[in-house]
Amino acid sequence: MNTTSTKAANKLLVQHWQEGTTLAALPPALRPTERAQGYAIQAQLEALSPQPLFGWKIAATSTAGQQHIGIDGPIAGRLLAEMVYANGDTLPFGANRMRVAEAEFAFRMGHDLPPRATPYALGEVLDAVSALYLAIEVPDSRYTDFATVGAAQLIADNACGHQFVLGPQAPDLWRQLDLASHRVVGKVGQRLEREGIGANVLGDQRIALTWLANELSTLGITLAAGQTVTTGTCLVPLEFEPQDTVSMDFGVLGQVSCGFSAA
Question: By three-state DSSP, how is residue 39 classified?
Fold first, then answer.
């Protein structure tokens, strides 16, 4: 794929995102068949925003998440500043078709991790982290049947990126905790409650963060200081409806919540 086709593919996906519509698949001439082609299409998203890239998201870090979108491993997407909401905000419901909210650990980077030939080790990546935040991700897809289009097209569609709620910064004690066994409880109003643990995210959220640093490195991309990486859902995504309130309780680390507007 050349720059013209990647721009055209991105433009088509963004049009569906903005209009709240879906397509069965990208047209054959614009359809990525490899992950790298999907990332090349996704990269065109950055030109949409006048602000610096807010960060990155990781999709399909749990077995449930992989089954939900029909792939067998994680994929990365971009967090644009325009996708980010504050703790307690009411998010526009719009044409959201997935209608699920995810409890996530989000890491703020303190210094750059530039591309290099050798993979980053977990310790190196954690040394580059300045803070941990609690977060809610609200994914969605521009494909009518997102579970059948495959990883390359899902990457092109920003790994199902849609809305992101940045909650409070966790106390520094997070570095002393076993995040893999840390319990998180999610609720939708008073009608639905689920719990999960950090190990649902590639075995450990810190492993997921390391995966992201190395995925970007292979693409020639720096994971930059100041960027935030949200690492995937700790629990089975919570189904919500218009005007619902969603809350995620991370125990000693704090809580994060959001509401949704009428449809």
Answer: helix
Neighbours of 88 (CB within 10 A): 13
Rounded-to-integer distance, Cα 252 and Cα 231, Å? 19
Is residue 160 a contact partner of residue 139, using CB atoms and an 8 Å limit? yes
Tokens coding 157: 């569609």
Can you list the alpha helix ranges (DSSP code H) found in 75-163? 122-127, 151-156
Domain 3-260 matching CATH 3.40.50.10140: the answer reads no
Q: Which CB contacts under 8 angstroms, 24+ apart, belong to 110-113?
A: 110/225, 111/225, 112/222, 112/223, 112/224, 112/225, 113/213, 113/216, 113/217, 113/222, 113/223
The pTM (predicted TM-score) of the whole model is: 0.96
Distance separating alpha carbons of residues 76 and 157, to the nearest angstrom: 10
Cα 98–chain centre separation = 14
Tell me the per-residue pLDDT of 97-150, one tens digit each, with 9 for 90 and over.
Answer: 999 999 999 999 999 999 999 999 999 999 999 999 999 999 999 999 999 999
User: What would the pLDDT profile of 58-95 be if each residue is shown by its tens digit?
Assistant: 998 877 778 888 888 899 999 999 999 999 999 999 99
Residue reference for tokens 């619902």: 244
Q: What is the DSSP string of 179-239?
A: GGG-EEEEEETTTEEEEEEGGGTTTSHHHHHHHHHHHHHHTT--B-TT-EEEEEESSSPEE
For the segment 144-192, what is each residue's pLDDT rounded down to a tens digit? 999 999 999 999 999 999 999 999 999 999 999 999 999 999 999 999 9
β-strand 163-169 against 228-233: which pairing, if any? unpaired
Element containing residue 3 per DSSP (H, E):
helix 3-19
